[in-house]
Amino acid sequence: MQTSINPTTGAVIRDYPEHTPEQVQQIIEQGHQAFLKWKKVSIAERSDYLRKVNAILLAKKDQFGQVISEEMGKTLKEAITEVEKCASTAIYFADNGPNILKNEHIPTEYSKSYVTFQPLGIIFGVMPWNFPFWQVLRFAFPSLMAGNVGLLKHASNTPGCALAIESVFRDAGLPEHAFQSLLIPGKRCEEVISNPKVAAVTLTGSTPAGKSVASLAGKYLKKTVLELGGSDAYIVLADADIEHAIKTIAASRMLNCGQSCVSAKRLIVAESLKERFEAGIVEIFSKQKIGDPMDAATTVGPMSRTELRDEIHDQVQRSITSGARLLLGGKVPEGKGAFYPLTVLTNVKKGMPAYEEEMFGPVAVIIPAKDEAEAIYIANDSVYGLGGAVFTKDTAHGELIAREQMESGACFVNMMVRSDPRLPFGGIKESGYGRELSSFGMREFLNIKTIIVA
């Protein structure tokens, strides 16, 4: 049984029976049969289906936003914005998919030589709870546009979101079983990956989860894309527009109650700006209203689960014990719900949990740097490499640092890291491999076939 629990109140929303092993294999077979039909649907028709999906998402954005907020705790405003982003991404792939999938002709001595792109089959997505619509649909849209079909194992605390997403594709009129949800725990992923009719696996989640799924995919020789944890470094150089940096970084850290892979997690600040930066972050955090995500006045909702709240509190306490200084928050509130206060730690150093580990919650970690060289060293001194940012008034120099010196899959100058359907998204090191979104993401799960005619 999967139980959906409201993190705001701790009340049970609904229990969902898990699929049996027999049902799992039946669903996979249904997906395979759907693939045999779907791959024959013209690319133009697939675009039309995605436009129908766009219309459904926009028409039901308030309804879906409520499902998201109730199930994982983000504010209703953020939840609705997430659905709107999904809708616009459907249009991106509807508009651009046909060009991405065109044959690519390569001049050679042969009469014809080109690359053609063909779908693989069932793409198995193992997805997290923090952006329960976006994380799913950013793999589903390019996969379906390419002629693949989708099979989803969502996080066990967001089954309602999983079934709502499945309903969108059904209501849009896609062939039956072209996108299906499996209600199973993570420990049963091998039942799916081992099936020969499952072509590939994509996972967004923690690094340990990624390693587990990658080992199974390797065992059965299945292509994988992994978007894993992140501890994004945001460097604030001595010449930065400090007010802009404070405002942008605070917004990034508060988004989704700090539960984002590309949130501003390690704030590496020039020593000359440290006191002003600390005061600015504390000031903004202190003004926020933490509470019921359905309340329009709330700016930060609860964390997704109480055990995750307790985990980040433990990281905070261990960091303080190791010498970090607490400027704000750091105490578990009394009462129901998975609430945790916006928290600010400073004077964080190597060896502390806040320096070494991913802080997946509303905690700002300030690490002073004596100069630019040390700031870049600290930024790269991590097992993670998802995103990063540089703040400086010299944008050309910031671009150089971003391009040449930051070890990450993406690096932004004077703005927060975010995903965009037009650009590839993914990481390096223990943040995973492969890319999602854009042409790069669509081609991850295609047979890139060479054709030569003498």
List keywords for this structure.
Aldehyde Dehydrogenase, Chain A, domain 2; 2 domains; single chain; globular; six-stranded mixed beta sheet; Aldehyde Dehydrogenase, Chain A, domain 1; 454 residues; 41% helix; alpha/beta; seven-stranded mixed beta sheet; 15 helices
Could you explain how this protein is built, in words?
- By secondary structure, this protein is of the alpha/beta class.
- The protein has two domains: 2-228 and 431-453, Aldehyde Dehydrogenase, Chain A, domain 1, CATH 3.40.605.10; 233-413, 3-Layer(aba) Sandwich (Aldehyde Dehydrogenase, Chain A, domain 2).
- The protein has helices at residues 21-38, 43-59, 61-72, 76-100, 134-145, 159-171, 189-193, 207-219, 242-254, 274-286, 306-321, 353-356, 372-380, 395-405, 438-444; strands spanning 2-5, 12-16, 104-105, 112-119, 122-126, 149-153, 179-182, 198-204, 223-227, 233-236, 266-270, 325-328, 343-346, 363-369, 384-385, 388-391, 412-413, 428-429, 432-433, 446-453.
- It has a seven-stranded mixed sheet, with helices on both faces. Strands 7-6-5-8-9-19 form a six-stranded mixed sheet, with helices on both faces. It has a three-stranded antiparallel sheet with strand order 3-4-20.
- Strand 1 (2-5) and strand 2 (12-16) form a beta hairpin.
- The longest helix is centred in the N-terminal third of the chain and has 25 residues, at 76-100.
- The protein is globular and about 65 Å long.
- It starts with a strand and ends with a strand.
